Structures are given as structure tokens and as C-alpha cells.
Amino acid sequence: MARKEKNDYFQMIADQVTRSREAAQLLSGVLTDFRPEHLPENRVRMHEIEHEADLIKHDMIEKLIREFITPIEREDLRDLSEEIDTTTDLIEDVLHKIYIYNVQKMRPEALEFAALICRSCDDLVRVADKLGDFRKNAEEIGHGIVEVNRLEEDGDRLYIECMARLFREEKDFFELIAWRDLFSCLEQCLDTCEHVANVIEGVILKNS
Questions:
Q1: Which residues contact 8 (CB under 8 A, 6 or more apart)?
Q2: Can you say whether the dihedral through the CA atoms of 201, 186, 167, 164 is positive or negative?
Q3: Could you report the per-residue pLDDT of 58-101, keeping only the tens digit for each?
Q4: What span, in angstroms and rounded, lies between the C-alpha atoms of 50 and 92?
């Protein structure tokens, strides 16, 4: 369906989500093999990914402004693009916070969050790749949306447990403040993945 359009908005959405996945994979790699001395170069690479995502978003918005007919309502495309943009921004924010708080040692719960974020972004990429013919692929897209929702619930449980452990066991005030903020940011990454999935679900329901 979208392939016949002058501007392939669904492909732009897929490209944006792909950048979110790249950001998630970079984050996971940084946290898994955490070396504070490599953080500056990793932040540069993360910002490059975020900037590429911004360019895709701005290009799509400019085309939406000029386009007379779009495959779905332009507001839905804009909202979806904004939610994906927020996801990528929040993933980048995790590295910013690690730098700001001068984190020297990674916590295992952060690795669990990063793995969940990667899996959520993987599912969103698979869903976005099917949007060009969302009526035909509605069932498969639906399965992907359910999986993103499930991963967000896993993240909620992880957040409660790691925050409880943090406040019970951490004696250093500055470490407590830093990781409280970091865990919150990691959990928000999963929330925004779910928001992307929910917008997609709404688009399909509205247009089916």
C-alpha cells in the first residue's frame, strides 16, 4: 500500500525505529563491557545515531506538511514519529546520566534493563517493517505489540525489585541518588517502547 505513495512514510517510521534499535544495542554493549574511559567516544557515537534519527523525523514532518494525501492520518504519523524519537532520546539520556554521575561500576540490574530494551526495539522493528501493509499483517503486528507490552511489564517488576534493593542496601548517598535516577531512566525507555506499540495499535484499529 505505502509503496505506491510518493513519500513512503511507513519506511521512514521503520528507519526511525531502526535507529532506536541501534541506540539500544550500543547501550547494551557499553553496559555489558563497561569501561568508563571509553564513555566519551561511546557518547559521540550515540549522539550520531540520535542525530540520524532526528533527520529522518524532520524530513518526514516536512513532507507531511506539503503532502495532500497520506496513507493514514498525518496526526497519527506525527504522533508515532514523536514517540519513536522520545525512545531514542531516552536511550541516549542513559549514557548522559552515567557520565554526569561519574559512574565507575555497572550494576547487574542495568544489564537486565538493557537486554529488555534491546528486545523491545527488536520487536518494534519487526512490527514497523510490516506497517506498509498493516491490514494484511495485522495479526503478526498484534503479536509484536503484545510482546512489547509484556516486556514493559517485566521492566516494571525489575524496576520495583532493583529500587527496593537499592534503598535497602546502598549506604553511599551519592550512589543511591545516581542509581535511583538511572533505573528510572532505563524503565522509562521501556515505557516509551510500549507507547510506540500503543500508537501503532491505535492506527491499525482506526484504519481496519
A1: 2, 132
A2: positive
A3: 999 998 888 778 788 888 899 999 999 999 999 999 999 999 99
A4: 7
Cα–Cα distance, 122 to 32 (Å, whole number):
18
What are the Cα distances from residue 150, in Å, to 21, 45, 157, 171?
18, 30, 11, 33
Burial state string for 125-164 with b = 16 or more CB within 10 A and e = fewer than 16? bbbbbbbbebeebbeebeebbebbbebbebbeebbeebbe
What letter does residue 37 receive in the DSSP assignment? G
* Pair 119, 151: CB distance under 8 Å: yes
CB atoms within 10 A of CB 42: 17
Residue 111's nearest CA partner among 19, 193, 17, 34 is 34
